[in-house]
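We modelled the chain as a single entity of 173 amino acids. Its sequence is:
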Amino acid sequence: MSVVPNPPLPPARLSRGTGRTLAALTLAVAPPEPVVPDREARIADFLAGYIPYLTPLLRRLLPLGLWLFEWGPILFLFAPARFSRLEPAARERYLHSWLHSGWSLRRQLAKGLKVLVLMGYFELPEVKAHLGYDLAPHVSERVRRRSALLGGRPLVVEPHSVGAGHGTTRSPT
């Protein structure tokens, strides 16, 4: 029995406002080094590809959370401008105020947005190269070692049936 993987989901369509908020958030959160060309747009593209894999509830709430974060400076009397229009120092203070807010919901939203942006940032090839992160040699070594341990036999993964618990992995005999 062969297992056919599901085709990838199409990326989410981000509004201009969402893109503006994500770009401003990237500038406030992502480290300045290494210099990555067009990083704000590339991180937004990464997130557009990631959003379809969120749970349905999170997919629906993320735009609301981004809207609240964008308009929060006005709503919470922090500044008379949206987040994306604040000066860089004011953006950082605003983000810090959310990350250390007395309201749990504000803290959790700010942490979630920060994690999403950083996830996109650390997926950029230039950042991986700067950090010396290359997964391919590690995977190749694991595959070679597993093959040696199994005596050259392929690894078989049997999908589980409903209610049967986890799938099983075994070496064919």
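As a brief sanity check on the tokenised model: The longest strand covers residues 156-158. Strands lie at 156-158, 168-170.
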